[in-house]
Fold this protein.
Amino acid sequence: MTGYYDLILGLIPLSLIGVTGALSVLGVSITAAVPLAASIPVALIGHALFVNSPVDDTQSPTETVDASSSASFEPAD
């Protein structure tokens, strides 16, 4: 199943190449088209990192720690 981050990883090069090509067809020089087109992948990366950030699933621990296991700890010094 394709997830959100898989789509983002696919859209990064596609948007950079596609928008650069579209801008160059419209008459923008390639040296100006690449930085302008790079703003779209930067926005995609920013959205993936800060707006829809990857987080670990937090689950409560199912196994409790015995008091006897912590009593067996001996400091090194």
